[in-house]
Amino acid sequence: MSVRYVFFAVACTAGAPEAYMIGSSPGKGLGVFATQALEPGDIIMRDRPVIRITPPPFHDGIGYSLNEVGVLLRREFELLAEDARADILSLTAHMTAAEKEAIDQLVPIFRSNAYNTDQAISLFPKVARINHSCRPNVGYAWSERLDKQVVTALRPIDQGEEIFVSYIPLLHSREDRQKRLDQYGFKCTCEVCAQDTAGLQASDQRRKDISKAFSDFEPQLTLSVPQSKAAKKKAHNNAKASIQLAELVQEEGLADYYVTAYRVVAILHARIEDWKEATLWGHRSYKLSKMVDPQSDMTKELVAMTNEFISRWNDDVRNRSRKTS
Ligand SMILES: C[S@@+](CC[C@H](N)C(=O)[O-])C[C@H]1O[C@@H](n2cnc3c(N)ncnc32)[C@H](O)[C@@H]1O
């Protein structure tokens, strides 16, 4: 990838060199690029919020009152030092014609760049430079303990490759994804959206199939083992089909969804008491979940669940060896 790098704001402190730099991304303004080859699980950046607000009440069908958000933002902004204010005002924002005329552009800046962080909404000056892709290569998680947003590689990334997150849920057709991205004011030209018609149709179909499989499997995601003959047969078919789901997610390169897909495969194999496969997929899901957020409820659930599968697998092996001896 040939990119003309624009070096700026690369903090050079003692310790490991930064794994990223901010540079120009053709057609997308600025973007974030890997300064070294990265492996899944490598942490790319930890960024502290420059502004964090607890949002006003959310009104169904309307959303947040922009006036109320504006007041909260202005209050926080006024407390900041000059350079922090300049950082915020330099961020890219999609604005309506009326907003362009307005003196206060904090709301559109926040809307285009902020992330949900537990009960709050936060603006991170470096994370805000990460562009969107419908096939992102990094994940992110808010760490209350560190007071930072942590960005982690989800798959191998080459030196110089651009880092992409996803701004939207991805299990939708290109047309539907574009509708959601309209609020950011750009037409997505990521590697998925830039494919030819045949490639796009295949991608849309895969995402539709993945989404359908997730909702079809949802009611089956309990750890109780089916008892009737018919239910057992269905559970075997589901376990088989869940492997196809994991393969489909991998084929589409949806690294954001690996944890969820592998968890489904693990649970559906537990329902047919295939403890070896349940353990294998449970481990896969856990490892990826831990990379992005070691403290998340999902990671904790996967530890407990996979340990249960291991213990069942152990029992199975012991029982079998008792029978044969
Ligand atoms: C959160 S900012 C990302 C950083 C931004 N490129 C910058 O220069 O500061 C979001 C804005 O980046 C641009 N952008 C992000 N992803 C893009 C994409 N896939 N294609 C085109 N523009 C994109 C859009 O202008 C969008 O409103």
From TrEMBL:
Ranges of residues in domain SET:
18-168
Under SMART domains, the record lists: SET
Cited PROSITE patterns: SET
Q: What is this protein called?
A: SET domain-containing protein
Organism of origin: Massariosphaeria phaeospora
State the organism's lineage. Eukaryota, Fungi, Dikarya, Ascomycota, Pezizomycotina
